[in-house]
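Weekly structure sync, notes
Attendees: PL (lead), two postdocs, one rotation student
Agenda item 3: pending single-chain targets
PL asked that the sequence for the first pending target be pasted directly into the notes so everyone works from the same version. It is reproduced below exactly as submitted, 307 residues in total.
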Amino acid sequence: MGVHADVSRIGRHRPRGVIGLALVAGALLAGCGGPRNGVTLEACLAEHTDAAAPSLLPPCVWTTVGAMPTERDYVAGVVDCELGGVRDAPAALEAQAIAARTYLARRLERRGNDSPLPLTSRFQCWRSDIRPHARAAALATRDRVMHVDGALINANYVAGAGRLREDCTPRSPAANGYGDTTWEAMRRAYLDARRARRRRPFDGVWWTEVVVTRNEDREGEAVEGTPMASPHPTNRGAMGQNAAVCLARRGYDTEDILRYFYGADVELYVPLHPPLDPLVLPPEALEPEPPPPPDLSDGDDAAPPAG
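Predicted structure, written out during the meeting:
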């Protein structure tokens, strides 16, 4: 069986945009209303806050269905929705958890925890029925986020091409169902559509390869940003989920996968290391949000036909 036979439904959601890091105190200012899961943010915080284990993220997040523990339920639910169908590539699921957590952190810095998180592809896809291997990936990477020089990166990610070569680079657009063209021509068409505010320049999701970056062994200014976000030091490219699974199956570990897409100088915060201080993030880390990327949320779950 080919290495991509069971990943054709990975990441069939909108590409990710820029988000930010929040203070736990801001979580207490959540709006009122009847959460559908019956849990208020105050109740969740009272149960899950542990003063002995400080974290960059609040212990609970406020969502459109109510409050939930950040790591156990929110991050794990994103991992399950995005890559839960993959059971033989745990490093890819852990990389997804770190990207999703970094993405969440960027949003919270900008908007705080009183703005409910959408649990759809408008923000991050989320699944309530979390499978054990997805939750394990979230808990194994607990608190880890990506940063460069003390600034959280954007952590964009998309599905990317589903038909890949043995080295995990994309086969031709034709092999991915897009006819006689090139990835560069499709990238130019994507940029034209973005300027025209057209959200879906092509069918399916494998066309999102045009925004995936491969930054293995690159550092600093040599790192290529993704065109789905504004040029900025925190734009470190975008991960391709299909390629991440391919790399994991080839033996890449979690950090290797992340640095393959985001650059060799990406660092990971872990609880045993000095934590980042959210109060001293550099001003350049808070660039204006880019225009919304293409919306892939219309329910098109069918894989593009192979050429």
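Discussion points:
- The chain has a mean pLDDT of 79.
- Helices lie at 41-48, 70-83, 90-111, 132-140, 183-195, 241-249, 254-262.
Action: rotation student to compare against the earlier draft before next sync.
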